[in-house]
Specification:
Blueprint: E1 2-5, E2 12-13, E3 15-25, E4 33-43, H1 63-76, H2 95-102, E5 110-111, H3 115-121, E6 135-138, H4 149-164, E7 168-169, E8 177-180, E9 186-189
Parallel strand pairs: 2-5
Antiparallel strand pairs: 1-6, 3-4, 5-6, 7-8, 8-9
Length: 190
């Protein structure tokens, strides 16, 4: 996000803090567990003025494609792997890139903070003089809570799997991707 004047800013959302209590291994004594409280700020996307007019599709493969992946792994003796990308929605493409890829107009999404969060924001470099009465925070990327965050993440993931790792989508299911080696033998499916 960046700062911007409140005047002229449209589509201003507010935020909600979501807390999560976890037990993790203690750094001092790994045999003991300590309670950690993690706070995550989420935009209250249901207040988004443009929410009903944006495409929210984020692709996932269907059940038959998931069964095909499992079947191929079993037949070939491959190990199945899964991964969880921490804070995935924050790693999607920017609103500018989203507009460029889709041909849609660039979205204008802004948010404001509660007074307790403003005090914390003022401790960050460049925000010491932030004034919530005259300024808002402008989203450069869809954040957690935005309806377009899953699609922005999906486009970023597709860019990585296809361009960087050589996967190609199948005609059967666009979200089912495959990669072949130099002998045209299947070497990866996902």
């Amino acid at each position: 996000f960046t700062r911007r004047p409140r005047k002229g800013a449209r589509n201003i959302l507010d935020v909600k803090w979501v807390c999560k209590w976890k037990k993790v291994a203690s750094k001092a004594d790994p045999t003991k567990q300590v309670r950690v409280i993690r706070m995550r700020m989420t935009l209250r996307g249901f207040k988004d003025m443009d929410a009903n007019s944006i495409q929210t599709y984020a692709g996932t493969s269907g059940r038959p494609a998931q069964r095909l992946v499992t079947s191929e792994a079993c037949c070939r003796g491959w190990k199945l792997r899964s991964l969880d990308v921490s804070k995935a929605f924050l790693k999607g493409i920017s609103y500018k890139e989203l507009a460029k890829q889709t041909g849609e107009p660039e979205r204008d999404v802004n948010f404001e903070l509660r007074p307790d969060a403003v005090a914390a924001l003022r401790q960050c470099p460049g925000y010491k003089d932030f004034d919530p009465r005259t300024e808002v925070l402008h989203c450069t990327k869809p954040g957690t809570g935005c309806k377009d965050a899953p699609r922005a993440w999906s486009l970023q993931l597709t860019k990585a799997t296809n361009a960087d790792f050589g996967f190609k989508p199948t005609t059967y299911d666009e979200q089912l991707v495959v990669r072949h080696d130099h002998n045209q033998q299947l070497d990866c499916i996902g």
